[in-house]
Amino acid sequence: MPEFLELLPPGEALKVLLGALPHRKPPVEGLDIGAAVDRVIAQDIHSPDALPPFDRSTVDGYAVRAADTFGASETLPAYLRQVGEVPMGAKPEFDLLPGETGLIHTGGMLPAGADAVLMLENSQVARPGEIEVLRSVAQNENVLHAGEDVAVGELILAGGTRLRPAEIGGLSALGITRVDVACKPRVGILSSGDEVVPPDVRPQYGQIRDVNSYSLAALVTRRGGMPDMRGIIPDQAAAFETHLRKALQECDLVVMTAGSSASTRDLTAQTIQQMGAPGVLVHGVNVKPGKPTILGVCDGKPVIGLPGNPVSAMVIAGLFVSPVIDHLLGLQSNRPEATVSARLSINLASQAGREDFVPVRLVQTDQGMVADPIFYKSNLIFSLARADGLVHIPADATGLPVNASVDVRLI
Ligand SMILES: Nc1nc2c(c(=O)[nH]1)N[C@H]1C(S)=C(S)[C@@H](COP(=O)(O)OP(=O)(O)OC[C@H]3O[C@@H](n4cnc5c(N)ncnc54)[C@H](O)[C@@H]3O)O[C@H]1N2
Ligand code: MOO
After folding, report:
1. What are the backbone angles phi and psi of residue 288, rounded to the nearest 5°?
2. What per-residue confidence (pLDDT) applies to 262?
3. Which InterPro entries does UniProt cross-reference here (predicted)?
4. What is the spatial distance between Cα 245 and Cα 276, in angstroms, rounded to a whole number?
5. CB atoms within 10 A of CB 59
6. pTM of the model as a whole
7. Do 137 and 162 meet the contact criterion of CB atoms below 8 Å apart?
């Protein structure tokens, strides 16, 4: 197997790929907010209303004019005349004049004239219609002001933001029940290899069941794409060409697995090269696992050739397939990946100049979280299934020492 001539660091390889993709706005579909979690909003959304819409109490207690309570204490209470009770879900039917108070519940609307709420615990009924104030309250204490959360017209969601449960709740609070989101990009998945059979077939000796189509489809779904499993291609140039050409017509991104290294029977790169300009942009990335990775663009459509080994395919899909899906969705605000800080349980060696991703198990100990590396082989999918996440060893390090503090990227 010939050596690759030039291995790009993964970060640079990704820049080359993204830089060669057109910057098109994704097609848009309208959705009810109940079905929109994890989708990417297509346009800026400005608030039609203020939130909260009116001044509200944050506690159960008495609406007061703060000045009426100044100096009050348990030994020297102030006395206020109770003039009413604020109904939930309706406007108070009274205004507060000096020396007056009204019973109010958490979330109730402050009556005009009130500027604070005394907590129930700091009050006492002196006699019917009169309460004792056992503590002074400051102006605005226990009050939410109209517009404190969101002002009318404020930008609440920028186009390109992925909707999380909190944003869905915010939209609901504003009465926005339908949103325009980016359509899920269709991601064609082509596995290859004469030895690979579908999972519902009992393999003969020499055959193995397809792992990559399913693990990749799951990764694509989780990232917000629409996986399109297009079967297993035999190791023949004509079959590669037919399948890739059709996949490029029907999909927004095509991911191929296996056939990515440099041996004569490895057909992925030569097929991509024939499918449109500019063709193969990167063949070989300085990373372990996953060196024989291919990145290409054919007439505006991205094509990614992943190594056949299932662990490598997953790690590399995380580095390249996921960001391309983000690009196709028009994702703008890239939130950091979920990581857990931990200390390494052992020394980890690595080759200088190459980036490594090592599967680790996370163990909670009395001394904190420990990352325990798994001695994996990139063909063994359960060496990844047993892991909680990956530790990244940068290119300039020759490894990481025991007890090094690491950020484990959850998988
Ligand atoms: N002489 C050398 N041989 C290899 C090298 C090397 O540098 N010199 N690199 C190794 C590395 S690292 C990788 S990764 C693989 C890359 O191989 P390919 O991407 O060309 O893929 P294949 O050779 O077809 O398959 C590799 C391995 O994965 C299995 N496989 C393939 N597809 C699937 C699937 N859908 N589900 C489950 N398993 C799959 C396949 O049977 C092979 O065992 O090359 C190494 N060799
Ligand atoms: O680079 Mo291979 O992908 O290590 O198994």
Report:
1. -130, 125
2. 56
3. MoaB/Mog-like_dom_sf, MoaB/Mog_dom, MoCF_biosynth_CS, MoeA-like, MoeA_C_domain_IV, MoeA_C_domain_IV_sf, MoeA_linker/N, MoeA_linker/N_sf
4. 10
5. 19
6. 0.93
7. no
Nearest atom (ligand 1) to Cα of 195: 41
3-state DSSP call for residue 134?
coil
Burial status of residue 127 (CB atoms within 10 A of its CB: 0-12, 13-18, 19 or more): exposed
d(CA 249, CA 244): 9
Helix (H) or strand (E) holding 186: strand 186-192
- What is the number of the ligand 2 atom nearest to the C-alpha of 378? 5
Beta carbon of 170 within 6 Å of any ligand 2 atom: no
Which residue blocks in 147-306 are alpha helix, DSSP H?
A: 165-173, 212-223, 237-250, 268-274
CA of 309 to the centre of ligand 1 (A): 5
Residue nearest to atom 5 of ligand 2 (CA): 378
| DSSP per residue, 260-277 | -SSSTT--HHHHHHHSSS
Residue 10, ligand 1, Cβ within 6 A: no
Best of 229, 235, 309 for a ligand 1 pocket test (most atoms within 8 Å of beta carbon): 309
Q: Which atom of ligand 2 is nearest to the CA of 287?
A: 1
Ligand 2 neighbour 260 (Cβ under 6 A): no
Measure Cα distances from 365 to 343, 362, 406 in Å: 11, 10, 16
**Residue 390 alpha carbon to ligand 1 centre in Å:** 21
181 in Cβ contact with 27 (< 8 Å): no
Mutate to test the pocket of ligand 1, among 205, 240, 261, 294 (most ligand atoms within 8 A of CB): 261
156-170: per-residue pLDDT in tens? 999 999 999 999 999
Please tell me the residue having the least CA distance from ligand 2 atom 3.
290
Which residue type does 163 have?
L
Q: Name the CA dihedral angle for 172, 174, 180, 185, rounded to a multiple of 10 degrees.
A: -50
Q: Separation of 77 CA from ligand 2 center, angstroms?
A: 76
Interval 107-141: pLDDT, tens: 999 999 999 999 999 999 999 999 999 999 999 99
ipTM over 0.90: yes
The ligand 2 atom nearest the CA atom of 291: 1
By the 8 A CB rule, do 91 and 71 touch? no
Task: Let me know: does 303 contact 320? Beta carbons within 8 Å.
Answer: no
Ligand 1 atom closest to the Cα of residue 305 is 19
Q: Which two tokens stand for residue 364?
A: 């909670």
